[in-house]
Structure formats: structure tokens, C-alpha cells
Design a protein that fits this description.
The structure holds two protein chains of two kinds. By secondary structure, chain A is mainly α. Chain A has nine helices and no strands. The interface between A and B is medium-sized, with 30 and 38 residues.
């Protein structure tokens, strides 16, 4: 093997590779290759030292200060953005509250107005037991009072209804508005003539007009299909 | 203590085990500035440009503090971003120089006497370095920064030491062949 063909092996050896026994033997006998190996090592050392010297350079003292300054500037910008968002949120919330207050002052929202109107509607006559007794009359009066008080507010209405639900269920008759007196007369007549009431309930009641109960019969017109 | 990683490793710990990342960054700023600057300088060989790149890399590293809590990863990230930014900077600088040279005409050819000059050797060396594949070049520059400590370079690149060693061997071999 010639000296020229050993160049790659010499460079590997210069780079720190372990020389083969054959290369070692050649180097011992060849001063030119020993010189080439030394030149290669010198060249590599120069490369390393040049590189290291170039990279040993340090930045100017102002670099860290510039970085700090820029980070502070960016943090300030971030804080500014966050403040603007917060301020926008606060203003938005304030506007929403103001709008709600204005609506409440100028008129209740539709739902609450409906509730108020419902509470103010003329209610049917108080519930009266079909067969009133002193006890039920007293109970009816007691029930009617909280109902009257419920017109003051929806909350009270709810609590009064709850109180009603807790009371024992009694037979009730809904009296159309304006017919309270007629019902009272009917009940009084039943008290005086209970046989008439029994006659009404009998299944074998003969066909015919009902006894005169002083209640005007309903004038119901028969339904007619539209052409 | 060295660079950003050293600082983060040795950095203070606040209550309940929560690391004071901002404090660590601030305390390590001088060392990490040097690391970023040297990496950038390895590409640019121009102080002002390298400082600009280092500044940008450090600001970006600061933004990454929350997500890169592992100090070694953060240091490796700083090296990579400095390297990338420096390469981008050099590309734009080359375009600018090419524009300017087209105005003043081609540069004079160097004569043989200049080749023996140390500055000429340095110039040829950097030309050879620039011609290296990027993987070899980065290992070579980091080895120059870290004084050829393979372990340090491997930690910076998050690579096995054997890989770093072989890449460094190849890089120096190519340089020696070019500079023969």
C-alpha cells in the first residue's frame, strides 16, 4: 500500500482514531507519513482553536438589559390589553344593570306584569261547601282571608296556596261571579226542605221538571254545525 | 452553573414546590444570553447581528417558560431557536449583500499570498463550516462553544453522546480535508 493511499487512515488517526497495527508499522518506517500525520493533527488543532476562539466571544453588557427592557415592554402591553378587556367587561356589565333598572322602573317585564294582572283579576266567589256547616264556614272564611292577602304579592300568593294545599280536601263548588246570593238561597232552602235535596239525588226520580230552586236555568243554545 | 439550564437546575424553589420560573430566568439571563449569542455568532460571525438574534431568541424563550418547565429542554430549545433565527438572519443578510454587490461589481479574487494569512485561514475555515450539512455544523459550533465536551453538547441537542461524537468526527474530518 502506497503512502498516498494511507491519507484517509492518517486523517482518522489524527482525528483520534486508533491506528491499526499495520499503520503503526508503516509510520515507524515512513518519515513522510509521520510528517503528514503531524500536519493533519496541527491542522485539526488550528481548526479547533480558531473555532473556539471565535465562539469565546461574549455579548455586550447591554444585551441582557435590552432583553429585560423588551420583556418589560411586552408585559406592559399585555397588561394594557388585559386592562382594556376588563374595562370593557365592567362597562358592559354596568350598561346591562342600568338597562335592567330602567326596564324595572318604566314597567315590569311582560311575565311579571302578567303575574300581577292575574293576582288582580276578580276571583270567583270563595269556595263554599255544598253542605255548609258551622265548621266548614269557618274554614272557608279562614281560607278566604289569606287569598285576599295574596293580592299584595306573588310570594304571599305562593305561600297561601301552599297553606291551602295542606288543608284537608273538602267538597267544593265553584260559584260563578254574581251568583253567590242565589247559592246561599239554595243552600238555605235545602236546609229547610231536605226532602227536596234527597229527591234530587234519588235515582228513581220521576222525569219532569226540577223543583223550583230559584235559580234561573242556563239558557244554552244547541250547537249547530257550520255549513 | 452554565447557561439557562444550569440556572434552572440550581434555581430557587418557591413554596409548595412551585418553581419561580421568572426568577430563574432573570437570574440566568447573563449566562443564557451568552449561550444564545454564541450560537448565533457561530452562524453569523457578526456581533451586532448575533446580539439581535440572541435578544429575539431570549424573548421567545421567556414566552415558553410556562410550557418548557424542564430546564434541559428549555436550554436545548434556546439553542435551537437561536440557531434557526441566526440562519434566517444570515439568509436575509446574504440577499441584502447580493443586492449590494450587484451594484458595486464582483469582489476581487484573493491571491495566493493571502491564503497563508491567518485571517484568510479563518475565512476559509468558516466557508468550510458553512458548507457542512446542518447537523454536522450545529454539533461543531456547539463543541466549539462547550470546549468539545461531548456530554454537554449531547445535553444541549438532546441526542445520545455516540451520535454527537460521530457527527463531530465527521465534521472535523471534512474540514481537515477542505483545508488541506
Amino acid at each position: 500500500m502506497s503512502c498516498t493511499s494511507r491519507q484517509a487512515s492518517l486523517l482518522d488517526a489524527a482525528l483520534g482514531g486508533e491506528p491499526t497495527p499495520e499503520l503503526d508499522a508503516h509510520l515507524a518506517a515512513c518519515p513522510a507519513c509521520r510528517g503528514e500525520l503531524a500536519a493533519q493533527r496541527g491542522r485539526l488543532a488550528r481548526i479547533d482553536s480558531e473555532l473556539q476562539a471565535a465562539l469565546e466571544t461574549t455579548p455586550g453588557p447591554a444585551l441582557a438589559a435590552r432583553v429585560r427592557e423588551r420583556l418589560a415592554r411586552e408585559a406592559g402591553a399585555r397588561a394594557g390589553r388585559a386592562f382594556r378587556w376588563t374595562a370593557a367587561a365592567v362597562v358592559g356589565a354596568a350598561l346591562a344593570i342600568a338597562a335592567a333598572a330602567w326596564l324595572a322602573r318604566s314597567g315590569a317585564p311582560p311575565d311579571s306584569r302578567r303575574l300581577t294582572e292575574t293576582a288582580a283579576l276578580p276571583r270567583p266567589a270563595p269556595v263554599v261547601s255544598a253542605v255548609p256547616s258551622p265548621e266548614t264556614t269557618a274554614a272557608t272564611t279562614a281560607v278566604a282571608r289569606p287569598r285576599a292577602e295574596t293580592r299584595r304579592g306573588a310570594g304571599a300568593l305562593v305561600s297561601a296556596d301552599a297553606a291551602l294545599r295542606q288543608r284537608p280536601v273538602e267538597p267544593e263548588v265553584l260559584v260563578p261571579s254574581g251568583e253567590e246570593q242565589a247559592l246561599r238561597r239554595f243552600v238555605a232552602r235545602l236546609r229547610l226542605r231536605p226532602e227536596e235535596g234527597q229527591a234530587l239525588l234519588r235515582e228513581d226520580r220521576p222525569p219532569g221538571p226540577l223543583p223550583d230552586l230559584s235559580i234561573a236555568p242556563l239558557d244554552l243554545k244547541p250547537l249547530s254545525a257550520e255549513p | 452553573m452554565h447557561g439557562l439550564g444550569g440556572i434552572l437546575v440550581d434555581g430557587g424553589v418557591t413554596g409548595e414546590g412551585e418553581r419561580d420560573l421568572e426568577g430563574e430566568f432573570e437570574r440566568g439571563l447573563a449566562d443564557s444570553s451568552a449561550l444564545a449569542f454564541r450560537v448565533a455568532y457561530g452562524v453569523l460571525r457578526q456581533r451586532e447581528d448575533a446580539e439581535d438574534v440572541a435578544q429575539e431568541a431570549l424573548v421567545r424563550a421567556h414566552r415558553k417558560l410556562g410550557s418548557l418547565r424542564n430546564p434541559e429542554r428549555l436550554r436545548a430549545w434556546l439553542v435551537r431557536i437561536s440557531w434557526r433565527l441566526a440562519l434566517d438572519h444570515r439568509r436575509s443578510r446574504r440577499r441584502r449583500l447580493a443586492r449590494e454587490q450587484s451594484w458595486v461589481g464582483a469582489a476581487a479574487e484573493p491571491d495566493a499570498a493571502d491564503l497563508a494569512d491567518a485571517s484568510r485561514f479563518r475565512e476559509r475555515l468558516w466557508q468550510a463550516i458553512d458548507a457542512l450539512p446542518e447537523k454536522l455544523r450545529l454539533v461543531l459550533v456547539l463543541a466549539g462553544i462547550e470546549g468539545h465536551r461531548i456530554g454537554e453538547v449531547a445535553a444541549l441537542l438532546q441526542l445520545p453522546e455516540g451520535t454527537v461524537k460521530s457527527r463531530l468526527f465527521l465534521a472535523r474530518k471534512r474540514l481537515a480535508e477542505v483545508l488541506r
